[in-house]
Fold these 3 entries.
Entry 1:
Amino acid sequence: MGIYLSVLVLLPIAALLAQAATGGAAAFWREVSNPEAVAAIKLSLGASAVVVSVNAVFGTLIAWVMVRDEFPGKRVVNAMIDLPFALPTVVAGVVLLALYGKGGPAGVDITFTRTAVVLALLFVTLPFVARSVQPVLLELDGSMEEAAASLGAGRLTVFRRIVLPALAPAIISGVALSFARAVGEFGSIVLISGNLPFKTEVGSVYIFNQVENDNLPGAAAVSVVLLVAALLVLAALTALSRRGARSAR
Amino acid sequence: MALGYLALLLGAPVAMIFYRTFEHGLAAVWEALSTPNALHALWLSVELVAIVVPLNTAFGIAVAILLERHRFRGRAVLSLIVDLPFAISPVVVGLSLVLVYGQLGWFGNWLDAHGLQVIFSVPGMVMACAFVSLPFVARETIPVLREVGTDAEQAAATLGANGWQTFWRVTLPAIRWGVVYGVVLTTARVLGEFGAVSIVSGRLEGETQTLPLYVQDRFENFDTTGAYTASVELALLALATLVAMNLLTRRTRSRTPV
């Protein structure tokens, strides 16, 4: 078991770190501060930030509708939410292009724009927040909300003061997972963004291009930056969500 | 509003791809499906599933039992490492493997001297798929292991069962739905893996081209029928996965506590 883990995960990660470290801090910095790399990293982080904000709102809303509302076909819709997890990422890209691409019936053309990047990321990260909020909402006792309402609180106040604090840890942990996924996403973006340097080239695509051009040091350096960013956000938000869960209890 | 969002982002695009695929009739679909490259890509994807899923299932169960039933130093670290693949971009996974097993990688010379090729061939693709789908079985099995507790296992041990007997007769039957759920997720991930496989395989048509890579290839060659057909093939597999997931969640929820 140890061998499996070493051969598969530990050695490769060690090789990545070693490659990024060859040549020392100066070489690392030179690779990372390459203007095209900077633009790609910025776009990845920026688009991911936008996407997780949208997810926080709409994921919670979707979970709310699935738990609190009744409508025909609810079970099918509920099952469909997981589709982005089951659908191969390339297919997600093709599917979005078929509808929102050039000549599509929607009458818009998002190909080769940043909108396409954001849309692809929204698609693949859709389930994270909804699926993490849903079980918490299901367990939530309605009596607190009723008590607040009977004491004269409006619906918005009830949501803000009672429901939201209870859901916050779940929302945050869903956001953390979405962010980690969005920062590294590749398959759904590569077809529809056009990968134009300085415009729609995200970090993972930049890494891919460097590997194809045999610039392994550059690829490794940017990989380490993205990896560290994902892990930092994951760690920070996990800590935040744990603290929220404790204080809510 | 939530439903509208779902429809725009999820429902409409997926419905569209089915429509575009079948608008020229079934004959065109069949023709696109049965080109040698399309068949080879499908076969290669199935082959990867057949190799990776058993490996990761065995590993996942073993790690789950180790993490849940044993207390040892470095347990938290092991748990972190098992989850690591979820936080790493598939492209980075591919790059890391190239750095170890590629021609210029750590073991490149040694592998070359022994006539072994990992990168740009099936072993590398197996490793890429195994890396990205590593956590699924363990993550689905651990909560189930916790829930079933150790009573039955202890009873078996006091009745004289050895470790293997306890595992096969008591533990495995109790956790089987958790394991199967993990297997379903692993299968879906391996079938759809793109970024890591893209780097590691070299994308050689009719050789190391999996079904998702085939989709990209057709798309970039403006063969939309080919791309759409292969996409629908993968989408149907995804829908089957979805159905399996739903049946299994219902099964786990309705399970009576032991």
Entry 2:
Amino acid sequence: MSYASQVTEGLHIDFPATLEDAHEAVSEIISWLESHRQDRDECGTWELVLAEATTNAVTHSSSEQTLQIEASCSASHIQIRITDHSQGFEWPEEACLPEDDENEHGRGIFIIESLTDHCSYLRGRGKNVLDLQRQRKTAPPPTEDLAATLDLMTAEVSSCYETLANIFSLCAEAARDVSPEELASNWLRQLLEISGADFLALRMLTPDGALLEDIANAARLSKAENEAEPVEENQSQATTRSFSIPFINLDRTDLIESRAVTLRQDQWFDGSSDFHQDDPLSHWSTSISGVAHPLEIGGEVIGVLTVGVFCDHWEPKARDINVVRSLGDFLGTLLHSLRRRDDANHSRLIKRELQIAADIQRSLLPDELPQSATLQCAGHLTTAGEVGGDFMDGIALADDGRLFVIADVMGKGVPAALFATAFRSLLHSHLDLAAQPCELMRCLNTSLFAELDRAEMFITVELAWISADGFTLRTCNAGHGPLLLTDGQQVTEIGADGPPLGISVEEPFTHQEVSLKGITHLLLHTDGLSDSTLPEDSGLSRDRLHQWLINTSVEGIDAWSSRDTLRQMHHDHQDNARAQDDATFVVLARENALLSPPRNQTLTHASR
Amino acid sequence: MNATAIIAPAELCSSTSRQWKERITKDLTEQPQEVSIDLSKTRFIDSSGLGVLLSLNKTLRAQGGVLKLLNPSSAVTQLIELTRLHRVFEIVQA
């Protein structure tokens, strides 16, 4: 700060030589002095001096003449000149009070000289000037150091441009196909170069808001590290470090970064700070100082950016801190948006993938199941999600026999659908083995084993071959649920006799041959239809399924009506008892049930 | 005792003092023995104003009366003392 030595301000007033105009002019001068921070006493003194001086000038002038007052102020003085154009008068060499105290006149010049530090009256031809000066009692306002202000403004504007340019560059990089973590890492390195800091660390809140995740960090090599690993010219000295604390709990307010986020305030630290032993910042170096700055979007805290140096004390320039804060806030906002965008894209991809898998699964189903004079069949497939691993088929064989297949590929989505596709292709290319289900199963297992094993997946399968006359059943089971038979009096379960496909290439499969004489209904189903672990009185338990099958037989219900009833039971059971699951089943009906006329829509498919 | 109290204007200077003097001269036709000029409201006075007070003081004394200046402000008091008129006027601070 400095005070100007030259005149900084001035005021000039011309006025007619009357007492009223002089009074008005003096009032104007006093207002001007007040506006220049002269206090009330100082202004009062000047008012008295000027009143005396202008009265003298008016008294010696004619009313047609004009008087001038010029006021100026410097850092140390106030100077006022009063000019008149009268004949003037003799200014006494020594101003004195009248000898007679009671004399009514003769005090004006005494008052003027008493109250001014300098007073001179210059009497000229047709122009007289009274020059009055007083030291300022009140210091003038400090004048601005223009050079310093200009430097400050230039630095500020420069930092704004730098920030803006970096934000544009950041936007351009974000538009490329780059992961949020990679983007953050690149940018922390650049920020390190322009901020004058030694290290930067970025943590973002996890979606549940409970943890701060280490996203990226950047640090200059310390002096010791530099000596150990000298960097080549033009090679960046920034590096990243991995710590053993990728996450910190937000409720650990004894950790500086957690505290910055919880309190939503910058947390400064230096060599005198007491770091908790778990504090990740203490891992940077034995002596650090800096600030942890919380990142917010619209009032919501999203993370924390920590910037610091490898020494006990740091006084960053305001410009550097502004750049770090501005770019940090923007980087945080960008990362937050990118992560949300990635999450949304991921969801869209999964949805699309499941839709593709569902389309594949639907394409694998036969349009209709084969009917014959001795056997009715109706099937149903319920997909709980977009797609499941269930598969069913009913094939009319060349010798008028029938092959029914029900399978469950482990898992969901496209991988399960692809295995189901491969399974169906293999099945249809080996129908010559249909009458020997164990051979067919072995062939399927051998063909699929390598791929299933590599993918760590498996398929449970039930193959059921029925002879052309409808009296013989050969069934082979690979880890699947039991096939149910009923004659109206009891239910027989034909259970698993081999492992699922993809478990063992050595394991032999066998089939069971059963006479269907007296059997009215058969049920092939996946484990989604019934759960044997359920208690007796809840949902579609094993016993309830058995009872339903006996009732269906006793009442001589055809395959389609049976299918519809079971489908409804499963639907009610799903709604009331347990989470949704895929369920696939095929009902076969013989003997009494054949009295009903055949129907279309032998296979139904429902998505829930 | 015949006494009169007069309130002085806020400014008693060259542009106002003449009119004020004419007005109080008219008001004092009954020749009171004591006249009190209330200066409490007077923020500014110059040598012209002092001249009016001196003239009034002289007139009253000639009539056997006395002039008292009541409650002058500090600025007015300072001027009276600067011009040594405190030796002439009777100043009363209430």
Entry 3:
Amino acid sequence: MSAPTRRGFLALAGTGAAAVGLAGVAPAVAVADVKTAHVPDASGPLVAYLADMAHDEVRLLVGEREVTVHDRDLAARLARAAHSS
Amino acid sequence: MSSHREAPEISKDPVADNTDVYAFRSPDRPDTVTILANFIPLQQADGGPNFYEFGDDVRYEIHVINRSDRRSGVTYQFRFTTEITNPDTFLYNTGPISSIHDHVHWTRPQFYSVRRITHDGHHAHESELLADHLACPPVNVGVRSTPDYASTFTSAAVHSIGSGRKVFAGQRAEAFHVDLGSIFDLGTLRPFQNLHLIPSAAAVGVNGSQALNVHAIALQVPLTDLTRGGHEPVDINAPASVIGVYASASRRRATIRHHGGNDFDSGPFVQVSRLGNPLFNEVIVPMSDKDRWNAVPPSADDEFVKYVAHPELAELLPVLYPSVFPNLAAYTKVRADLIAILLTGIPSGVVKGFQNFTGAKPADLLRLNLAVPPATSPNKFGILGGDLAGYPNGRRITDDIVAIELRAVAGATIPLVDPSFTADAAAALLTDGTVDSNGRLLNTFPYLATPNSGSEVRPGVPAT
């Protein structure tokens, strides 16, 4: 499987690239890159999706919150992961 | 069912489908307002073995606008939790259910919480959990499973939650009457179908919602619970006496499904259904915009004004009923009457002694002037019938919404804002030919009738 899977992500189908994983075991990439965005509750499942690749926009769903980050590296990794399996 | 299955997407998600909203000063407790928000349309009373219930994954809300910016002033939020008390049976109940607390025989009880949120502009200002783990009644399965339904379950499921507030959430009988089958057969109004473009013999209307049930969220609160700053509404002319009401249903942004269960929802709630004025999305908004309308708040309704200004139905009526609506056919001006009724409220000076104007910014809201007392002899045509306590001043259960809105769209209300127009004679006569053949309403909260019984009802015939 892809690198994100090793980090606890599962690739999902969608219009863009999306990923879901258990925050407790995974998101070395995601959480590290969005720590300044103040993810409020990382104890439950975390869903990430690449909302707008042209603008490097990644959205993270955590609990009842949605956090938007603009991170070129993260966007690129997710996009590569979605097409690597 | 003024907004049942009214948009392509929500028609596939009945648990979140808001069918009717009512708001009126309670006739038996005039110092309070009752708001009813119905969901899950067209319920067959015999819809077992998995009977209807609220969605645990849906957030249901009743919004009250008391601010000039059309954003919520007060929101009541309802969240449901279903419990399985006997995992080893396929049955909804394993014996007669003796009370709403009989979890020995009732295998799938449902509970809910009520939260009250006040808003300051875009953001929640204060959030208070009013009650938690309130019991819903079971559905009306039948004489053996839910015996003496009315006396056993209804009042027991009315919960007082402090500060003069009452709530109820559960199945009730459908109260809306409409000739559903005929109206959506190219706008056929059975009493006038001999005049239709494709004529047939005139006939009596058929109430398509008869014997069906819905799930109702009913809320009764003091008047001052809804006004801005606890204002006491005594002056009909005061802007602060008017509130706007709508209900909504929301789902989480994402649902992740796993093989073998353990699905989960994630992200913020996103609105998937809303309802203010009856029939707005159903017959005003065109197919291409219906789903979008359901997804945006009333404060974003500017983009839908064009559909009210020149409603498709007003153009169709003269085509479907040739020579019946010549004055309507010739009227090409913006429908200022409908914009007032549906989107801004009626300003002072239009209807003598009345206003429910909330400002020029359009928003589809059910507007209620709280200073108008309940009518002692309600007229089912509301303000069109000279009764200021009826639609479009709020909406009572007994208001004949189909006839009122048909008449309004057909031009009966144009002279209120454009005295140069003479309404066609037919506009004042329009009806779908139905009478209220639904269950008998209660005189007290939650007012909606006892749900039709699964084992007693026959299709098209109410149980009692």
